[in-house]
Structure formats: structure tokens, C-alpha cells
User: Which sequence fits this backbone?
């Protein structure tokens, strides 16, 4: 999963990014509204965490412009706690609203929920035949037995599972698993997919030649 | 009750109306009365004249018993008119004596007359009363003279052969007619007055309406819609200044309100952000076992935020206390030149790091105040001058005097303050270039605190800034005059 953090306070952006990276997210950062919108419209993020008070253009502006073209789930992070501001944010298109100072675990959980909703899979447990993917605990059970996957392998599996029935191109996988700070080779995706197949079975992930991968519905 | 404009208006209006109607009615009445009395006078004078000329037709011996009865005696005396060819019979003469349409015998009507001979015997008397008079003969002339008595007018004159003619008319009828007239005037006048007052009341309500309109417009403007104003295009000329003053007050209220809202939002943000940083960092560190270095880093980050929070809280408290008037600066003698030089020295490393040169032009000046806070002001101004500068630029510190004031000027060669931002420079949390100032530290309270301190010292702080040209801050403080020793 790849998320964007738009926050102008460097220390705060830093700790949020670190927290999500530890949860195996790819995290991009932006320090003002202009760069934030530019990145948000360039890449297809799974979620965006955005502060309201930003230099150049504030969070409302970014949200309004983003919503014209993208359905990316947005969580507003801000110091304004008035009902008026919350309502304004939600009505402008934000999907969730957290007031600073926030609980880190709560932030992590809410972003997970947003991503679940966006993928139209409200159930945190995704079942594919006899494979249970627990997106909350980030664990995979095959016929009840825990299968250990690396962070990247899990991330690819979850991405394909969330987009079940749809072909996900290699580039898309790459864009969702790695953030801009990564410069690994793109064929690493094939390596990871092949590892997942080894652990979960070959039929799980189907290759569409020239297009990408998919998990059958 | 007298607080009501309408009632006061009505009261004055009633007084004026009363005076006018009353005055008019009185003048009318007086005029009519004078005319009626004049009529009476004319009538009795006419009657007297008639009697006088009728008497001259009487044979003299009828008028004056001392007169001889025969023609020979008449010629001898040579008085009176030549005897007529023959005298009319006495009864005829007597019948002609009462003036036409006057009573010929006692009938109790208001008109009366009597004619006396010089020996006080009566030739004729009609409706005579002994109460009438007395009228001294000495004043009488052959021209009728009017005597005005209560309830009647009386005329006297001398007839031929010293006869005395008295004619009079009672005023009773006239007076009762005049009374009726007066009553009618009173009734009509009162009606007019009442109608006038009613009309006045109605009109005054209509005149009060514009005031009501303004007050209801004004009361509609509340916290929810402070941007509304009274529509001055539809306000009457006399109320225009009032409407404008109210609109002005609303504008100022709106500005203050907006400033307050902005301040609350800013303060909230500035206080919550360091707290969020600390909280998130600590929570993240506690999520898993960490290395000693990671813990150290976390603690370091937290400490930075704590320092920032502390500065912010201190700044806000200072401002709050100054606002509440609780802070009065000390009244020490402060060598401002020493303070300025100290600050320049302290900030030299900071300036060097930014490749900014500090130049000083400082004369010895003393002021009365609090050294610590004044030092803080100078520090803040010079820090800003260095921060908002560019490499190779310089900061010039000037300290001098002008009349009774100490003048401190801090000039920088930075990019200046944009014109649209200039009115808000001393506002709390205001920063001209948000992105930049976050990098270089600062919480936006510096200049607000400076102004607060300078105000408490009874000084002023102003600035001139031209974008591209740099900025000069000018502080004026009352000097301590060297005491005569």
C-alpha cells in the first residue's frame, strides 16, 4: 500500500511516515498544498493523510481540487476541533477527520479502514478459496495454518486480493509497494509474485501476459 | 414618560397648537366684541343726536321754564331759533321724541333714555333707573360723550337750553350673544386641537419609522452575519450620520472578531502541533522494542518540541498578562546603548552563519524601564533582521535621540514585507512568509510581544518596508533626562 502524507511540520511528517513504513506501507511526503496536490494527482495512492493548515494552498483547496478527478480516500489531520471545521472537511470530500494530537494506533487503524472501504471490501478478512488474509493483523492463513510471508510478499498479495477480479499491472504493483524513496529494480515484482506462488499455490495469482497479474474472483 | 421623543414632540406641538388656536380665537372674539360695542355706541350716539335735534323743535318755554311763553318775550331775549310760524302741538312733539325703533315707554328692554331740564325736571324718561349715574353736568358738551359702565353703555350730551340728554343701552343681549360665540369658538378650537394632535401623533409615528428601521437592521447584524451593513442608500438624510457610525462600528467589530477567530485558530494549531509530535513519537517508540539510539533520537525530538511549546506558552502568557494590564514594567534606569551593543555581540555568530553583517551606530542613551524585556525586544528585532535577510546583506542598528525620546532603528537588507501583509505585522501568530519562517524557527508571537512591551513602556514601534528594499523598524521610547546635579 502506498500513501501520501501532506504535512508541513517536518517533525510530524517524519514520525507519521516512519510509523507507516514500519507497517510496510510505502510513504510519500509533501510539505505544502501545491506539491501535495501535484503528487496526489500524479500517483494513485491508496490513502492520503493531509493537514489542513498548509503553506501555499490549504488542505481544503487540495481536497477540492483532488476530488474533481480522484476518489483517493483522504484523512484530514488538523488542530481545528470545532464541529464547523469537521463538518466542512467531511462535506468537502474528506473521508475521515482526526484532531491533533492524535493517537498513533488510531491513525493507523483508520487508514486501514479507509483502504478497506475504498477497495469495497469492508470485511478485514479477505477469503480466497481456503486462504484467509487478515488485513488487520497482516497475517495469511491457509486452511487455518499460518503462512509466513515477507512484508513485500504480503503487500503484493493484499493488493491483488483487494483488486480481486481486476488485472493489476506490474507498474501498478510497483507503484503501490514502493515509494519514491525506493529505487529497486522493477523485476523485483516478479520475484515476489513467484515467492507468493511458492507459498500459497500456483493457481492463486494468474499471470496475464503483457498485462499484469490478477487474483480470480 | 418624558423620555419618549414622540411624547415630547407631541407636547411641544400641543403647546404651539394651543397657543395658535387660542390666540386666533381670542383675537377673533376681541374683534367681534369691539365691533359689537362700537355698534352700540354708534346707536346711542345716533339716538342722542336725534333727541337733540328733535328737542330743537320744541318751543323754548317747554325746555326751560324760565323762558317766557309769549312771542314778545322771545324777541326780547333774542335767544333760540326764530319762532316757527306755529308750534306743533306738544303731544306731537313728545311722540316724535323717542328715536325711531327705541322704546316709547317703560318696557324693561335694555334701551333707556331721559331728558332733563336745567332745573332737573324731566321732559321724558323711558326705562329710567335711579341706579344710572350720577353724571355730573359740568363735563357735558353738546357733542355726545360715551360712558362705559358695567353691563351698559351710556351717552350724555347737552341739548338746547341747557337740557341734559341721557341715552343708554344695556349690553345684556350682546354679552350673552358674545358668550355663545365664545363657547362656540372654544368647542371648535378644542376640536381643531384634538384633530391636530391626532394628526400629529400619526405623523410622528411615521417619522419615527426610519429610526425603527435602522434599529431593526442593526439588531439583525450579529455574530452570524457581521459582514452585513445598513443600506445607506435607503436611509433618510438626517439619519445618515447615525447609519454610517453604526456601519463603521460593525466594521471594526467584524475586524476584531476576525482577528480573534484567527488568533484562536492559530494558537490552537501552534500549541497542538508540538504536542502531536511528542505524542506520535512516544507512541511509535513504545510500539516495539527499540534500540538505545532510536530512543535517544525520540527523546531528542520530543525535547525540541517541548522547548518550542514552552516558548509558545511563555509568549502567550506574557501577552495575556500585558493585555490584562497585570504587567507593569520596572522603572529602572536602562543604558539602552549597552543593551543594543550586547545584543549585537550575542547575535554575531547567528549573523555570521547567515553571512549577514551587523553594523552599529550607537550613542549613549538612557531610558526608564525594564532591562530584561527591552533587551528581548532588541534581540527579537535584530534576530528578525538577520533571519529575513539574504547572504551578503547587512543589518544596521542605530540608537540616538530626538527631543525627549530615544530612537532605535533596526534596518535590514532583506526582501521587505509585502504591502498586503503590512497592516497585520504586529498581529499574534502572523508570519509574512509562512513556509520560510517554519524552516528558520519562530512562532509568530515575536513582534506582538515586542509591541506589547514597548506599549507598556509608553513608547511606539513602527516600521517602513518596501518590497525588495528591506525593512526598517523604528522604536521610540521616552528618555530619562539626565538629572540636574
Assistant:
Amino acid at each position: 500500500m502506498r500513501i501520501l502524507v501532506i504535512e508541513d511540520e517536518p517533525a510530524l511528517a517524519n514520525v507519521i511516515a516512519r510509523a507507516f513504513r514500519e507497517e510496510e506501507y510505502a510513504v510519500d511526503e509533501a510539505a505544502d498544498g501545491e506539491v501535495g496536490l501535484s503528487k496526489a494527482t500524479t500517483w494513485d495512492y491508496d490513502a492520503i493523510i493531509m493537514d489542513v493548515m498548509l503553506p501555499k494552498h490549504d488542505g481544503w483547496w487540495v481536497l477540492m481540487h483532488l476530488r474533481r478527478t480522484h476518489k483517493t480516500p483522504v484523512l484530514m489531520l488538523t488542530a481545528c476541533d470545532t464541529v464547523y471545521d469537521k463538518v466542512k472537511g467531511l462535506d468537502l470530500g474528506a473521508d475521515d477527520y482526526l484532531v491533533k494530537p492524535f493517537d498513533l494506533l488510531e491513525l493507523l487503524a483508520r487508514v486501514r479502514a479507509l483502504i478497506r472501504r475504498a477497495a469495497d471490501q469492508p470485511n478485514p478478512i479477505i477469503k480466497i478459496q481456503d486462504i484467509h488474509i487478515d488485513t488487520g493483523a497482516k497475517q495469511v492463513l491457509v486452511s487455518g495454518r499460518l503462512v509466513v510471508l515477507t512484508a513485500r510478499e504480503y503487500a503484493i498479495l493484499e493488493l491483488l486480493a483487494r483488486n480481486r477480479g481486476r488485472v493489476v499491472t506490474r507498474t501498478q504493483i510497483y507503484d503501490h509497494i514502493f515509494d519514491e524513496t525506493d529505487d529497486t529494480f522493477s523485476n523485483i515484482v516478479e520475484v515476489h509474485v513467484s515467492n507468493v506462488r511458492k507459498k500459497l499455490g500456483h493457481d492463486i495469482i494468474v499471470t496475464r501476459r503483457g498485462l499484469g497479474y490478477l487474483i480470480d474472483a | 414618560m418624558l423620555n419618549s421623543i414622540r411624547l415630547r414632540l407631541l407636547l411641544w406641538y400641543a403647546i404651539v397648537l394651543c397657543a395658535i388656536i387660542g390666540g386666533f380665537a381670542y383675537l377673533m372674539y376681541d374683534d367681534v366684541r369691539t365691533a359689537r360695542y362700537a355698534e352700540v355706541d354708534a346707536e346711542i350716539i345716533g339716538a342722542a343726536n336725534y333727541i337733540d335735534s328733535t328737542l330743537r323743535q320744541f318751543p323754548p318755554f317747554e325746555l326751560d321754564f324760565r323762558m317766557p311763553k309769549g312771542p314778545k318775550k322771545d324777541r326780547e331775549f333774542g335767544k333760540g331759533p326764530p319762532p316757527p310760524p306755529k308750534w306743533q302741538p306738544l303731544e306731537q312733539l313728545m311722540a316724535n321724541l323717542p328715536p325711531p325703533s327705541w322704546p316709547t315707554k317703560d318696557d324693561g328692554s335694555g334701551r333707556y333714555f331721559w331728558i332733563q331740564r336745567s332745573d332737573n325736571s324731566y321732559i321724558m324718561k323711558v326705562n329710567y333707573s335711579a341706579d344710572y349715574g350720577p353724571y355730573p353736568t359740568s363735563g357735558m358738551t353738546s357733542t355726545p360723550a360715551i360712558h362705559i359702565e358695567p353691563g351698559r353703555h351710556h351717552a350724555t350730551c347737552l341739548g338746547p337750553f341747557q337740557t341734559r340728554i341721557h341715552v343708554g343701552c344695556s349690553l345684556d343681549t350682546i354679552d350673552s350673544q358674545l358668550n355663545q360665540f365664545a363657547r362656540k369658538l372654544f368647542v371648535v378650537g378644542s376640536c381643531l386641537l384634538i384633530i391636530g394632535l391626532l394628526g400629529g401623533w400619526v405623523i410622528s409615528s411615521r417619522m419615527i419609522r426610519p429610526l425603527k428601521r435602522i434599529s431593526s437592521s442593526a439588531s439583525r447584524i450579529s455574530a452570524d452575519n457581521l459582514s452585513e451593513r445598513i443600506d445607506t442608500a435607503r436611509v433618510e438624510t438626517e439619519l445618515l450620520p447615525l447609519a454610517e457610525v453604526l456601519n463603521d462600528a460593525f466594521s471594526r467589530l467584524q475586524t476584531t472578531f476576525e482577528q480573534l477567530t484567527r488568533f484562536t485558530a492559530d494558537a490552537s494549531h501552534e500549541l497542538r502541533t508540538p504536542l502531536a509530535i511528542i505524542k506520535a513519537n512516544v507512541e511509535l517508540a513504545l510500539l516495539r522494542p527499540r534500540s538505545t539510539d532510536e530512543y535517544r533520537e525520540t527523546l531528542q525530538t520530543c525535547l525540541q518540541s517541548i522547548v518550542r511549546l514552552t516558548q509558545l506558552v511563555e509568549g502567550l502568557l506574557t501577552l495575556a498578562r500585558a493585555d490584562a494590564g497585570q504587567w507593569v514594567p520596572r522603572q529602572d534606569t536602562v543604558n539602552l546603548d549597552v543593551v543594543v551593543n550586547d545584543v549585537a555581540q550575542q547575535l554575531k555568530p547567528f549573523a555570521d552563519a547567515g553571512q549577514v553583517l551587523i553594523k552599529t551606530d550607537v550613542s549613549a542613551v538612557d531610558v526608564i524601564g525594564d532591562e530584561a524585556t527591552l533587551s528581548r525586544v532588541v534581540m527579537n528585532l535584530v534576530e528578525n533582521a538577520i533571519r529575513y535577510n539574504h547572504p551578503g546583506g547587512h543589518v544596521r542598528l542605530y540608537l540616538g535621540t530626538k527631543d525627549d525620546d530615544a530612537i532605535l532603528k533596526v534596518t535590514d537588507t532583506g526582501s521587505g514585507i509585502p504591502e498586503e501583509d503590512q497592516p497585520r505585522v504586529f498581529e499574534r501568530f502572523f508570519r509574512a512568509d509562512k513556509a520560510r519562517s517554519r524552516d528558520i524557527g519562530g512562532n509568530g508571537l515575536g513582534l506582538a510581544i515586542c509591541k506589547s512591551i514597548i506599549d507598556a513602556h509608553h513608547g511606539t514601534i513602527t516600521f517602513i518596508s518596501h518590497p525588495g528594499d528591506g525593512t526598517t523598524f523604528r522604536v521610540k521610547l521616552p528618555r530619562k533626562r539626565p538629572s540636574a546635579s
